[in-house]
Amino acid sequence: MVKMETAELDTDLSLFKYDTLEQLPSRYRDLEEEERTDRIEAALEELGDDVVILGHNYQRREIVEHADFIGDSYQLSTEAAEADAEYVIFGGVTFMAESADIITDDDQSVILPSMEASCPMAGMAEALQVDSAWAEITAAAPDDEIIPITYMNSYADLKAFCASQGGLVCTSSNAHEAFEYAFEKGDKVLFLPDKHLGENTAHRLDMEDEIAEWDPWDPEGKDADEVAESDIILWDGYCQVHERFREEHIEEIRADNPDANVIVHPECRREVVEAADVAGSTATICETVANADPGETWAIGTEIHLTNHLQRWHPEVDVVPLCGDACMDCNAMRQIDPNYLAWVLEELAEGREHNVIEVAPEEKELAGVALDRMLEI
Ligand code: 13P
Ligand code: SF4
């Protein structure tokens, strides 16, 4: 077994992708909900068609109730592509706002209300680090064409890198199609950054025996022989919200109520997806609960805000969190505080823009290619 050296990297890994974005002014910190809602509505009234608000399913109630569209990351990227408004206010995390900036026209601006909404999983595959790993991985399989696929949950520079190597972007709702596209073009797939979505997709394609893992932080976790022998190489990233779900949680739910149905997001561990009745993106989870018969029980294995929304939206269905009180909210999504929403909207109504997400032009074009390839599959 040939072990590889850990690459020396001189990266500037920071917690926030855009640490130049502005923090909330103190006068907005202690707004009461009622006053804040009135002020948000007044600003929206004034801004009219100039503004559209997109809200990811994991956003707080106080955000999604103001959203023009609520959806998963795929749905929101198609909404962004179709939006005519001058300003797209993104209730989501940085990588989603970047994708919206790439997809929208140059005369539209994308605003992320809070600079702190940075997804930790996206930070697990920095483009510089992947570029360095790419040299090692391609050297391990010199006769094979490797197609990189990055999950939407990654930054624009990594999307651009994937496009430059013939690859593309996928979301949790089309990962299997992205893999099929890649295998038509090449011999192997490098999938980043979510190893669980990668493993679950490999199973869906009956390719579970073709997996090698690549842990960029551990020399022992990078095996050139395995890369040479495997068709699917999985980057060792994960979502800490979805990793928390365990098979025991499903066993407990079923012991309590043998009729309960379990649906989980494919960012969950393989054994959890296998034990569940259904696995799917947040849009699939929403549709499944919307189509459930009254009185059915659905245990939901995903971020807790979505579970709470589903309880409110479908009171006729018994919607329960899969891991009870241990279920987590996403710390990155939670940073989009409604006080920030009030601030960016009121400022816009006064003609002042804050927290505009602008992907660098050289990355924008290539990352756009990777996104377009996804939208076409
Ligand atoms: P989807 O919106 O693609 O289901 O992804 C879930 C997620 O973790 C977003 O951060
Ligand atoms: Fe990132 Fe997980 Fe939060 Fe999604 S739920 S934004 S993958 S940390």
From TrEMBL:
Primary location recorded for the protein, binned into one broad class: cytoplasm
Reactions catalysed, as given in the entry: iminosuccinate + dihydroxyacetone phosphate = quinolinate + phosphate + 2 H2O + H(+)
Biological processes per GO annotation: 'de novo' NAD+ biosynthetic process from L-aspartate
Tagged with keyword Iron-sulfur: yes
Top EC category: transferase
Compartments, as annotated in UniProt: Cytoplasm
Pathway info: Cofactor biosynthesis; NAD(+) biosynthesis; quinolinate from iminoaspartate: step 1/1
One CC-aspect GO term: cytoplasm
Note on cofactor: Binds 1 [4Fe-4S] cluster per subunit.
Positions of iminosuccinate binding: H56, S73, Y151, M152, N153, S172, H265, P266, E267, T282
GO MF term (any one): 4 iron, 4 sulfur cluster binding
Gene3D superfamilies assigned: NadA-like
Cofactor (UniProt): [4Fe-4S] cluster
InterPro entries: NadA (IPR003473), NadA_sf (IPR036094), Quinolinate_synth_A_type3 (IPR023515)
Swiss-Prot/TrEMBL keywords: 4Fe-4S, Cytoplasm, Iron, Iron-sulfur, Metal-binding, Pyridine nucleotide biosynthesis, Transferase
Enzyme Commission code: 2.5.1.72
Residues noted as binding [4Fe-4S] cluster in the record, renumbered to the chain: C119, C239, C330
Function: Catalyzes the condensation of iminoaspartate with dihydroxyacetone phosphate to form quinolinate.
Assigned protein family: Belongs to the quinolinate synthase family. Type 3 subfamily.
HAMAP family, alphabetized: NadA_type3
Protein name: Quinolinate synthase
Protein species of origin: Natrinema salsiterrestre
Originating gene: nadA
